[in-house]
Design brief:
This protein is of the alpha+beta class. The chain contains 19 helices and 22 strands. It is globular. The structure holds flavin-adenine dinucleotide. The site of flavin-adenine dinucleotide has 37 residues, from helix 1, strand 2, strand 12 and helix 9.
């Protein structure tokens, strides 16, 4: 790919320049192109486009919903994962669909290859790609009428100027990145890659506030030196469920690999405890929900063992490397080797790359608008880890929004903002820009007030038409996606209408073997479907029996039938959720919280993070609690109950 697109771009003016070819940058460039902007993606190394810096997996609880939303908005991540996935599993299947988390293990090589193919082949004639490092941003000073300065271009490290109306900066962990391993600390954005200091200095010149965070990655293992016979396998779903709404199946459906489960031992914990003094000191907060093994041993001294998932990094044809999920560390290499070998099945294991930590600058995201546009300088948008988030999916979701908005802004068109009630992406951005970040932000479904309606299964139904109306999807280029979602929406609407038109007595429904309340009140087919739920073919069996009984119901494909059952099941709960939200808005925000409320005692009701933050801040009202970083929608519902009880 090198040289294919390495153009001299100095003579052109771009609507949008995207800096960084990671997960946020690729999506931002693609989104800007879909809006119709002349777009340039500049990244330090073309061969690292689509690199997964840490775990070789996409999705999970909350994160999987983000991937589906990215896909519904036309983004790349879901389609790339469907090409590269080697094990697909929907997490939380035993719970309700609202918290299902589609996830896949990816082959790193295939993932990168697929992302590069999308970026180089599919972004169209308005797209250019350049291998270079961006050193500075060029700004036109504020006019005599005042107002913030405005971007006019980006200055490359070699001195060339690229003229642009807007820029989306997605430099991940590269801003003044420092790599830490044992007693060594070197400048770097990621292992083997240079950091980016100049952009950090530009931000400081603009008065943008920066702070520091830290994240880490585990050592990588040689799978040929692991005793697999001693480890419990975990298989994927069969058949695998694709991420993308455009796909009926995934590329590697017939060659799925297994992960394996291992556990740390007393010996592991002893090794880590004895080596605590050798852990490198760091400045920023680390991810609470992806802590190092050192932190886990320190924070949970009573825990006998921690789970370690051994995840293949790809097919044997590409790699024998295994990713040990759960033992991220930057302890010295000798300690890492000993701690890995203290785990059952890994006694003879060889390390192929040490774990390490990276600390880096990020921009306090409260300085951004909901479009991810920096307030203090026009034309500068930020997305991804630079905004204090962690994770590929969080980065990709911001990339779509920032890229689309940069393109819309450059064209003088209305911005595209998603509300908290519409999308998990909306929750993510709103949390960032209103609450801010003091530790890496990760998405959870519990952060969303509307988690019953903001689900992974319906992301296209929620977002695709919205995106089309805002010009974020291209009517011609995305015609297949739009046609598919319209057909699905129509089928669901018609089936719901047909079921609502059927009204029968409880005695009639009882002939179906259904325990409908015998109070004589007639029930519609929709009511009955809602009560059957989605369990084990219950809905499908009901619909079949209704058809056999002669009721006029449209024929539905199995996926639509499954979706119909989900919609019916959540319908009454979502209605209640609306009433609850309206109640919270109307008076809950002003409700005082009991002054003597012992947050520490609310185990099982609030998360550790919520108990910690609430106990420290002691907010006086529900509204004040809602503004605190880390306090989720689920947590607020708990607080509302306590506040009402004390009224
Ligand atoms: P990246 O994917 O980092 O992409 C940044 C891009 O910007 C790169 O392509 C880089 O070359 C380019 N770039 C930087 N500076 C310039 C410049 N001046 N000019 C041009 N291009 C530039 N996530 C988790 O969810 N859990 C974890 O445990 C976890 N651990 C991690 C551990 C490590 C060591 C690292 C490095 C990352 C870890 N991540 C983890 C984070 C995950 O990799 C990121 O969240 C995700 O990649 C962020 O995407 P991004 O697009 O914001 O940035």
């Amino acid at each position: 790919m090198r040289g294919r697109r390495a153009l001299c771009t100095a003579a052109k003016r771009f609507d949008v320049v995207v800096v960084g070819g990671g997960h946020a940058g690729c999506e931002a460039a693609a989104a800007a192109c879909r809006v119709g902007a002349r777009t340039l993606l500049i990244t330090q190394r073309l061969d690292t486009i689509g690199v997964m810096s840490c775990n070789p997996s996409i999705g999970g609880v909350g994160k999987g919903t983000l991937v589906r939303e990215v896909d519904a908005l036309g983004g790349l991540m879901g389609r790339v994962a469907d090409e590269a996935g080697i094990q697909f599993r929907v997490l939380n299947r035993s719970k309700g669909e609202a918290v299902w988390g589609p996830r896949c293990q990816a082959d790193r090589v295939l993932y990168q290859r697929a992302m590069r193919a999308f970026v180089t082949r599919e972004l169209g004639p308005r797209f250019d790609l350049l291998e270079a490092s961006v050193g500075d941003l060029e700004l036109e000073p504020a006019t005599s009428l005042g107002g913030p300065p405005r971007l006019s271009g980006v200055r490359l490290a070699d001195g060339r100027l690229v003229s642009a109306a807007s820029v989306v900066i997605t430099t991940g962990t590269f801003l003044r990145g420092r790599l830490l391993l044992g007693d060594s600390a070197t400048d770097g954005g990621r292992l083997g890659e240079r950091p980016s200091g100049a952009i950090a200095r530009t931000f400081e010149r603009l008065g943008v506030q920066l702070a520091r965070l830290k994240t880490g990655t585990p050592p990588r293992l040689d799978g040929r030196t692991i005793d697999w016979s001693r480890l419990a396998p975990q298989h994927g779903d069969s058949p695998p469920e694709p991420f993308s709404f455009l796909n009926a199946s995934v590329r590697n459906a017939d060659s799925q690999l297994s992960c394996h489960m291992a556990f740390t031992t007393d010996e592991t914990h002893r090794i880590v405890r004895d080596a605590q003094h050798l852990a490198p000191p760091y400045e920023g907060a680390e991810p609470r929900y992806c802590p190092s093994i050192d932190s886990k041993v320190r924070r949970f001294p009573d825990k006998q063992r921690h789970q370690v998932w051994l995840e293949p990094e790809g097919y044997a044809a590409h790699t024998s490397v295994v990713y040990p999920n759960g033992i991220s560390t930057a302890l010295p290499l000798a300690v890492q080797t000993a701690l890995v070998r203290s785990i059952g099945g890994l006694e003879r294991c060889e390390l192929v790359q040490p774990g390490y930590a990276v600390e880096y600058d990020f921009v306090l995201p409260t300085q951004l608008e909901h479009t991810l546009h920096l307030r203090s300088a026009r034309g500068i948008f930020l997305a991804g880890q630079i905004n204090g988030t962690t994770g590929y999916e969080e980065a990709a979701a911001q990339g779509v929004l920032a890229g689309a908005n940069a393109a819309l802004w450059s064209a003088g068109r209305s911005p595209f903002v998603l509300g908290r009630e519409e999308a998990l992406v909306g929750v993510l951005v709103d949390d960032l820009v209103t609450k801010g970040v003091t530790e890496p932000y990760r998405m959870f479904t519990s952060r969303a007030e509307s988690r019953l309606s903001v689900r992974a299964d319906n992301a296209d139904l929620r977002l695709t038409e919205r995106a089309l109306a805002a010009g974020v999807l291209d009517a011609a280029g995305d015609a297949a996606r739009v046609a598919a979602v319209r057909a699905r929406a129509r089928a669901l609407r018609e089936a719901e209408a047909a079921l609502r038109a059927i009204s029968c007595s409880p005695d009639h429904w009882a002939t179906y073997g259904l325990a409908v309340s015998r109070n004589g009140v007639p029930r519609t087919g929709w009511d009955v479907l809602s009560s059957v739920g989605t369990a084990a073919g219950g809905a499908a069996a009901l619909l079949t029996r209704m058809r056999e009984a002669g009721f006029a119901l449209p024929e539905l494909s199995p996926p639509i039938e499954r979706q119909l059952a989900i919609v019916a099941r959540y319908d009454p709960y979502i209605r209640r959720q609306h009433v609850h939200s309206a109640d919270l808005l109307a008076r809950g925000n002003r409700l005082p919280l009991p002054v003597d409320l012992d947050y520490g005692s609310l185990h099982g009701e609030l998360s550790n993070e919520e108990r910690e933050r609430l106990a420290k801040a002691r907010p006086s009202t529900i509204g004040a609690a809602a503004c605190l970083e880390g306090v989720t929608a689920t947590g607020l519902a708990v607080l509302l109950r306590h506040a009402k009880r004390a009224e």
